[in-house]
Amino acid sequence: MAPARQTSFARIIEKWQKEKGPLRIMSASGQLGYGIIEKAFRAGLERDLHLIGADMGSVDPGPYYLGSGKLATARRSTKRDLKMVLVGALSMKVPLVIGTAGTAGGDTHLDQTLEIIREIAREEGLTFRLATIRSEMPRDLIKKQARAGKVTSIGPIPELTDAEIDKAACIVGQAGTEAFVRAIDTLPDVIIAGRACDTGIYTCLPEKLGFPIGPALQMAKIIECASLACEGGGRDAMLGTLEGESFVLESMNPARRATPMSVAAHGLYEQADPLSVAEPEGVLYLEDSKFEAVDDRRCRVSGGRWVPTKQYSVKIEGATRVGARAIMVAGSADPVFIEKADEIAGLVEAQIRELVPPKPENPYTLYFRFYGLGVVGGQPVTQLPEEVGVMVEVIGEDEDEARAVAATAKQYLLHAPFPGRISTAGNLGFPFTPPELTAGDAYRFSVYHIMQVDALAPLFPVAVEEVASSK
Amino acid sequence: MRLRDAARVIRSKNAGPTQVTIDLMFDDPKLYARALAAPSMNPAVIAQRYGVAEAEVIPYPAANAIKIVLPRRVIAGTPGDTDVYGAQQHRPMIDVEI
Questions:
Q1: In terms of DSSP bridges, do strands A51-57 and A23-29 run parallel, antiparallel, or are they unpaired?
Q2: CB contact under 8 A, A393 and B51
Q3: CATH number for the domain harbouring residue A367
Q4: For A105-146, how does the pLDDT look when each residue is reduced to its tens digit (9 = 90+)?
Q5: pTM of the entire structure?
């Protein structure tokens, strides 16, 4: 009988226990599916790596993906990137860890990602052991914890009610290091997680091997954005060499420089608090961070201090359907229209409400946006522009209602009469027809809270499968 | 002196869907200190500028930077939003006098 194949995690753990020394961890991408830069990734593969990680999602793109179950990235781009990291990692027998599968990390997002992974395995003749982590939260637990006062809003979002929890299309929790370590314990080649802290991807192996977690977490927080911490940013793969109490950052694109200032500044990025990072199992404090140049493109960082908390907590995210969206896009170059845009919108809206009567129990909502007149940045416009972009957004009960309102808006805005009108053949220029487009269901974030829990493991179940190249 | 003439970076981005954060980064530590001390950098003044109830101003000397944290008026992506990523909310700070 042939000896059992040694998996990538088994190999790396055995190798490290023999050699000890620093851990070389590469972040292939901060947003897998938008195109990984191949040259830097290949250069990184030559660095005798202990782990390759990639983050695949975020809450940033809004509630649509979490609610609809769809991916933000195109399937072919997603497949291209997954193939690159999967084939690359397996060829070097280096463990691969992917977090927040399929943009939002719900079960459907994870399943669609796994379906692509299995397709790649068939096409490329790959055989490997795959561990998966699921992140959808049990609703009865959320309700129980909410009633017990153990669910807290993050920022200005209402407290959770049973009705709000029931209405949500999908609610996920962010898996932390703990879940990834349980996945490592199944000794796979590849780990793919649903919604997860982007840090857990990179902290699990250091935690498993007994590295101090503070510096490991600080390194994870930086490399999860790939080369973004370099001067001028960058999307190339980033290598983090974890030495113990310190780590060294190096972009796998030789043109990108991680300098003490660029790395320190990265600590601000997308964080409400640059000096602390809350994780399910504790808090990372960064006020004692030191940033030193190793040379002109590598930076050594130390000082991340980890304080475990007595109470576990999970960040939960949920999206709820609000209706169906249709939009109408156009532009105007007419100075009278531009001057009176808001007034005209009011007249047209009244006309639309007469022609397409809103249902009293569930009225549609209508937004007129005149780009150029202070829509985007919240700054009052002091001088009228030569042109404005016009968008009408409609949230209706269903697609048919939303489209009906958008089409009526198009026709009546085009031909709206108003005092002083000189362009009597039409008020708008359309870039194409139809200028009204349906955009599927619309969602809102209904859950963005911290939930205290007694145990993490039951919330993030790990499963293992042998992916075989044959069907 | 206007902030745009003093800072190298003036940027905004969501910090989660309920908050937006504005980062001001300076090359010159003296300009960083000047901005930090300016009356226009008072949290109440900034909150009023953005039309929100409160603002937090956090000095980050490691990068000669100042972070401002604001509640979002509309949760990111909820109908009525016009900047899902919060990446264009820096504009009202650009011409602030320091």
A1: parallel
A2: no
A3: 3.30.70
A4: 999 999 999 999 999 999 999 999 999 999 999 999 999 999
A5: 0.96
